[in-house]
Amino acid sequence: MEDYTLPFWIYLAIVTVFIGGAMKKILASHLNATSTVVAWLGATVLVERLWAFCLPAMLLLVLFGITFCIYYATKNSQPRAMLPAHGKAVIITGCDSGFGNATAKHLDSLGFEVFATVLDLNGDGAKELQRTCSHRLTLLQVDITQPQQVQQALLDTKAKLGLKGLWALVNNAGVCVNFGDVELSLMSNYRGCMEVNFFGTLSITKAFLPLLRQAKGRIVTISSPAGDQPFPCLAAYGASKAALNLVTETLRHELEPWGVQVSTILPSSYRTAQSSNSAYWENQHKHLLQNLSPALLEDYGEEYVTETKDLFQSFAKHITTNLQPVVDTIVQALLTPQPRPRYFAGSGLSLTYFIHSYFPYSISNRCLKKRFLKKNVIPRALRKQSAFDVNLSLHNNNNEEKLQQM
Fold first, then answer.
1. Which of 86, 115, 149, 342 could in theory staple to 111 by disulfide, Cβ–Cβ 3.0 to 4.6 A?
2. Is residue 85 helix, strand or coil?
């Protein structure tokens, strides 16, 4: 409810106005249709009284909604009391690049004791963290899909912390193996996304939960709006994030008695190292074309598959590289005395969720396509069918004209 406060009141006010207007029209039309009977029953007075009651009620509701919105905006604009960061230990997954790398550096600058997991200790991201961060930051080589590495990270963290508890786990590691229509996505795509985004995140969360329960700490999980809404060509990625969202929400309820607070962060579109890696997406595109069945490739056409790749790369070039809104939201979830269950990080998300929640599916889907990938190429089989239908229609018209001439 907290994330939808403003859209909720706007929606309620609009619905109330429409219902009030509809009631007046219905009663007025009923009055005109049965004027004799209604006049005898004094329905004219009834209509006027009902409308006289509805109008102040609507105005009062709108006024209440505006007042509440002003109060909510004023409350949010005031500086919030934050918990001290110094000395708090946080482990962040996926710090080779992107949100994880930027968050590790920022939390280190705030005084956190950061445990940053990376896939490669000799990679550029790890070297950058070593070069720019303080001695408080500890690098851990962890592939969250490998249970042995997760357990080793737990042992290393315990050894470094000693008796001091772990304040938070930031689940950031994630991957989008490839993109494309559900039918065109390889099963390895689905399994790859689930293995990292869901099973890997679940594995490291379960491993560190005893430390978090002991310290009454926090879990902050970076998810995606694709887990809540049907973004075109992101079914595999979105399905893994949807599973992650559900587990995170369940954890939030189950860990409440332990004093562990759980938050989900939903970022808008940002350009990270993976999304801007053209060579990777080109290789994935070739791999997809090589592994699609000839029949399926014939039905869709290579040009259809290629357009999806081109649209994604074009989209990635035009999104922002400023990751600070996400980093600031993570800090807020870590240090606010009462963190929210969900946070939106980035522009346009509130409107997107409002449209998805309250508008018809046709409008919502159209907005998603406009916001993300708007396909123009029609699958080859449908183009052939369309051409056949046109030819058949012309043929039938010609036959009809001949019959009329006879």
1. 86
2. coil
